[in-house]
Amino acid sequence: MSLDQVKRAPLPERRAHRAAGRGADGAAAGHRGRDRRAGRWWTPWLFLAPALLLFLYFKFIPMANALTMSFQEVQPYLGNRWVGTENYATVLGSDGFRDAAWHTVVLAAGQTAGSMLLGLALALLMEGRGRRLGFVRSAAFLPVVVPIAVVAELWRIMYHPTEDGMVNSLLGLVGFGPSGFINDPDSSLVSIMVTGIWRGAPYDMMIFLAGLAGVDRGLYEAAKVDGASRFQRVRHVTVPGLRSVFSILFILAAIRGLRVFTEVFLLTNGGPDGSTEVVMTLIYKLGLEQNRLGVGAAGAVLLFLMTLILTIVVHLVRRRESK
């Protein structure tokens, strides 16, 4: 239809013609938009490429090499020899492996529970807004950003076993005798656990603070009107509202506990008398100190499988509870 015919046509026909034109233009624009979006599917991957390349080169390729090495007797410059599952049998049958695994589980459980409870308590105390609270939160978060080597050296000095040691001096004020701490087989594991809790609790505190921001304030007011105490409000309102945060923190803290190495290595190196030997320090000694890299790789794979199983179990439990 020509322009003159459109102008001479009745009003309903002219409206229908304009609507058809707009529909065709909209369809063409939508088609062009889809083509444009389809042609740029690679844009997000372009931005992710540098990080993915770094992960590939420094993480995924070494992981694949470690998996291969765990089935080989590694002989630098002489060529590796395939030994099958012999390395895994060496790790599982090595002296002290069961004790190291037990120490790792105890240390991971204690640090996880302690850091989560202390982190929740700190979050409840520091919840709210204000310049002073911001400063206190930043100060409380300092143990997380301080290098672990500095933290270990600090606590090693604090744990000095003499009566004039810092912690022993504080214990003396309340009537307790001096303790050997990391130098005593009966208290060394607990001493390392306290150090891990001190360092991990501020990290959990920040995540709890983020979770508390999403709890409905109306529930607190309703519970207060019903006569609920502070403890009852925390138990029946705060804790259920932070259920998803608890599951995430449990996985993170448990993984952190299972992979503990630096603080144990720097404070006790598995001593005294193997009382703080964990899986990571045992792997280090088998693989690097004894120059059996295949055995060390097998131990690392076993630790990875333990962490993976724990993560899957927690995920399945969380999924079942959400149904």
Task: Write up this protein.
With 323 residues, the chain is mainly alpha-helical. Helices cover 75% and strands 1% of the residues. It has helices spanning 3-8, 11-39, 43-69, 86-93, 97-125, 131-140, 142-145, 148-158, 166-173, 188-212, 217-225, 230-241, 243-258, 262-267, 279-289, 293-322, and strands at residues 72-73, 81-82. Strand 1 and strand 2 (81-82) form a beta hairpin. Helix 15 runs antiparallel to helix 16.
Would you count the extended β strands for me? 2
Measure the end-to-end span: 61 Å
| SS content category | mainly alpha
Poorly predicted ranges (pLDDT <50, ≥5 residues)? none
Shape: globular
Determine Rg (CA atoms, Å).
30 Å
Strands of the widest sheet, in order across it, are 1-2
Helix content, binned percent: over 70%
Q: What is the helix tally?
A: 16
What value does the average pLDDT take? 81
Please write the string of helix (H) and strand (E) elements: HHHEEHHHHHHHHHHHHH
> Major beta sheet, specifics?
2 strands, antiparallel
Note the beta-strand portion: under 5%
Structure described in brief:
The protein has 323 residues and is an all-alpha fold.
Describe the protein's topology.
Layout: H1 3-8, H2 11-39, H3 43-69, E1 72-73, E2 81-82, H4 86-93, H5 97-125, H6 131-140, H7 142-145, H8 148-158, H9 166-173, H10 188-212, H11 217-225, H12 230-241, H13 243-258, H14 262-267, H15 279-289, H16 293-322
Antiparallel strand pairs: 1-2
Helix pairs in contact: 4-16, 5-10, 5-13, 10-13, 11-12, 13-16, 15-16
